[in-house]
Amino acid sequence: MKPSLQLRMGQSLTMTPQLQQAIKLLQLSSLELQTEVREALESNMMLELDEDEEAATPQQLSDNQTSETHEQTGDKTEAEAEFANDDIPEDLPVDSAWDDIYDAGSYTSSSGNTDMDMSGYENQSSRSQTLQEYLHWQLNLTPTTETDRAIATAIIDSLDDDGYLTVTPEDILESLDNGAALGDDIEIGLDEVVMVLHIIQAMDPPGVGATDLRNCLLLQLQQLPADTPWLKEAQQLVDKHLASLGNRDYSLLLRQLRLDRDDLQQVLNLIQSLNPRPGGQVQDMQPEYITPDVYVKKDKGVWRVELNSDAIPQLRINANYASMVKRADNSNDNNSLKSHLQEARWFIKSLQSRSETLLRVATAIVERQRAFLEQGDEAMKPLVLHDIAEALGMHESTISRVTTRKYMHTPRGIFELKYFFSSHVSTSIGGTCSSTAIRAQIKKLISEEPPQKPLSDSKLATILSERGIEVARRTVAKYREAMAIPPSNERKHL
Predict the structure, then answer these.
(1) DSSP designation for 422
(2) pTM for the whole thing?
(3) pLDDT the model gives residue 212
């Protein structure tokens, strides 16, 4: 066989740098979009914030979907008009990547003034105090010896997130090597470790340093005022009859404590006011802020969808730098200016495309979930990504990107767009019912159940079946667990 050249024609799907950029911006949340815009402003001289231009209204977005982006954000400068079609390519080679052409740079925080006001997000870098840090702060205010301070440090470091001591005093003593870690001439005993443990247990939050649930509740009861009603009875119940309380055997508790039903209820109310996880009061969690991307409100009987203009940065081409581009100049500096100008146009167009797509998807969701907006979760309609994709002529992956980490502000609260999509089950009359609506009905039935005889999963399935919703007991249990609702034996009250 001899080598030869052959010409073949074929079709293949390729992603241009513009499409890569559009997809990248489409899947970003509002906070991530702010960061991306800031990076673009820092790396591209042709971009600047359009602070004078008002945000485009939803009607403008709908009317101008096919128009050029730079025409919407501001009037064309003379330089832009001159070089709109000359010497600046509309597309980059399809075998290149966006990052190969457009270097967004790395974002670094600055304490100076910037073009983009990010002061609203300053608190996101802060964090709350940990339980260990909080206890160490209290320890510094407590007069103790160096030996006791070392023991207290070992105890504090042995606490879990709920505030419970995960080791025994013997383990604490062994970890200190019987005082060897404090010095060769220092000896400590188990009684001194127990004494320091009592100091930790007297700190805030009440119940910290407990060895188990019984000890935790007793520590909290001990810190209550002596004249607290039903205090002694509550201490007796926790100390000797906690197992019966865990089994919700109220009949046995009535006999053991020799109380009537109303008095026992008062004792239980006092115990239920205690915190079984005292460490949870001191959380080390990053604060999360949700900025809605769209607003939904009812105006004269019609539900209207509007984009949040504060979450959509308004950019435009810098006229001064654009005027520096020379048509016939092929120098490196002029080519760099042309490249930055085209990249700026692509970026603005991608932002506009993101807003238009988000508005269309949100509007389609509202049209199909009007019953939810007017009546609540029980009226939620079954909806899947394919329904919106088919209605808008888009791919399901595009709908998935748009609805991820995008939030809608409604009269009933703020919801992620994903919330409005749910599976469905068949009904006895031949229709379908959303799983969200089923969960809402289960939650309502449980809230109205008699406290002394809560509804079991089988009973809930039977009630739903009588309403025309055919669900199995296992399905009810799955929905109940998803809502963090305990089973019937744990919902039983006196």
Answers:
(1) B
(2) 0.62
(3) 92
